[in-house]
Amino acid sequence: MSASTPDISIKLARQEAWNRPPVIEPEGEGELLELAMGPHHPSTHGVFRMDVLLDGERVIKLKPVFGYLHRNHEKIAEGSSYLASMPYTDRLDYFCSLTNNWAYALAVEKLVGQQVPERAEYLRVILAELTRIQNHASTIGFLLQEMGASGTPLMYAFREREKILDLFESLTGSRMMCNYMRFGGCRVDASPAWLETARKIVKELPAFVDEFENFLRTNEIVMARAQGMGVLPPELAVNAGITGPMLRASGVNYDIRKVDHYGIYDRFKFRVPLGDHYDIYDRYMVRMLEIRESIGILEQALKDIPAGPVMDPKAKIRGFRPKPGESYGRIEGPKGELGFYLISDGSPNPYRYRVRPPSLINLTVLEDMCLGHNVADVVLIFGSVDIVLGEVDR
Amino acid sequence: MLGEGILKGLAETARNFAGSFVSKERLTTVEYPEERSPLPEASRVFPFLLYDGTDWEAGMRCVACQICEKECPPKCIYIEKSKDKKPDYVGKPQIYPARFEIDVSVCMSCQICVEVCPFEAIKMDTDFELSTDDRFGGLLYDRKQLARSNEYYHSIHPTEAAEVDARLAEEKAKVEAKAKAAAAAKAAAPPATPAATTPAAAAPVSKPAPNATEAESK
User: What are phi and psi of A61, to 5 degrees?
Assistant: First the structure.
């Protein structure tokens, strides 16, 4: 076989995938229209393309095309030390860099058998839940913006996100690219003043959620456009490997914080909101309720955060060589199950480094949700999936 | 009633609009070039090189150990060791960087160089207004452009700088005490090497002890 064979076969497979007959039969006798939405379409949250086949306004075939933002993340990580991959994980899902840090730190800690001090575990929970709140808030803001509420809901979401980002900056030094967690703890300790500010912000958050809900939850236009739209049945969601708020909006009770007991999540009381109509509105409401649950977790964590070190003094953050073996660290990220799979061959670099990105896998059911709907609704359904292209393409 | 939800939302907007005239809380935007929100102390942008005293070349703390060059994830640091030696802050002759360049257009502000530096020589700046019209060389900083005084470091990260200074003073006192003991021993016995340890060997607790051989072997 010549070296170029795989390339051709991939191309052919792509062509075949597009040439297959439409899943839905076109109505009427009009001509079908092939349309490329993106990669510069403002509703695609970055550089993402949907090739859609239209029968009038109805979508009868859809193919997601991505890879425009491919940065070779996994291969770069295999060539650099364990520590040097940590700042790159910030750039996967740039809305929630702290949860990415946590998942990667968890995978390496499992690989080398590292314990994490109590205070660091609490700080991780606090930062992860703050990340979840700001991610869900901005997702809902974007979703409502795509419904035509141009800008206003997004400004409300970003107003609160701004406070949380300021909190991140005063602790980690950066607003979005935090690079905060290390193997065996966290990089710097939170000062009492920081914790006090965090408590104050968490105290104000419920009022913000109330206002945000008041704003558009019962809006007739939102209800007309979101209810019964983009239904994702639970069987399909489970079979396609969907995770996160998408899966829970499909009525499947699966939250890795409850299932996997990573970190110290079994110490906190919180509920897992589930949807029962499996549509866009459910995804919106599940995220809204998750924000409220996160606020509950934050209150508990900020109340009983203990004193102590944030870094295991014996932990090595650089120049270590893990024993040959493999590990999989996974957490419930704001978008779904975020996992890092590492294989070590005893050298200072991972032999294999693999990211299980929730965004990419949640995107696989896009066609099933969009078939038969109008183009304008495709934008909404896509927005309700909540993806970040940095993570889809890596 | 149809339209109730819409009115409810509009009322929320109206409350915020009217409220922005009376309460500062609801005014969330800052008119950037004219007014600036203060940066938190931990804020970081790009690295700089720290020097003691007034002469940047003589007081440079960097000893060209090249750990930061090896650990830098995007590999934006370039170091060339000097042939000769100059005294460092405890007076021990050390190699210094003949060339130290950082391409800040590649740098991703991750702070790993600061974390791994055993000599407290590289720190993070808070100056983010660095745009230049020079497309190729304008953001490639050499060691003169990177050099900042300790006073400047104190002015941007006061708490952290005070901690670093205290740590270094402790090191220096330790080395001096050792040198004094060695001198006393020397007076009694044949020559011994004073201050055989580098300041790093007795590293501060919060920093990982540098392991030069390990870094070399990578």
Answer: -155, 145
Whether the CB of B188 is below 8 Å from some CB of chain A: the reply is no
Q: Do B42 and A219 touch (CB under 8 A)?
A: no
- Which H or E run includes B12? helix B4-22
**pTM to 2 decimal places:** 0.83
Q: Which is nearest to B101 in space by CA: B78, B68, B129?
A: B78
Contact (Cβ atoms closer than 8 angstroms) between residue A152 and residue B17: no
- Rounded (10°) CA dihedral B44, B49, B51, B55: -120
Query: In what helix (H) or strand (E) does residue B122 lie, and over which residues does it extend?
Result: strand B122-124
The pair phi, psi for residue A198, each rounded to 5°, is -60, -45
SS3 B90: coil
Tens digits of residue pLDDT in A177-215:
888 888 888 888 888 889 999 899 898 888 888 888 877
Distance of CA A226 to the CA centre of its chain: 21
Query: Residue A232 above 70 pLDDT?
Result: yes
Q: How confident is the model at residue B44 (pLDDT cuts 50, 70, 90)?
A: confident
Best CA proximity match to B57, nearest among B93, B84, B97, B90: B97
A317: nearest CB among B6, B111, B208? B208
Q: In DSSP terms, which residues pair with A340 in a beta bridge?
A: A329, A355
Distance CA A2, CA A5 (A): 6
How close A134 comes to chain B (CA, Å)?
A: 16
**Comparing B215 with B25, which gets the higher pLDDT?**
B25
pLDDT at A150 over 80: no
Contact A170 B42 (CB under 8 A): yes
- If you ran DSSP here, which 8-state letter would residue B199 be given? T
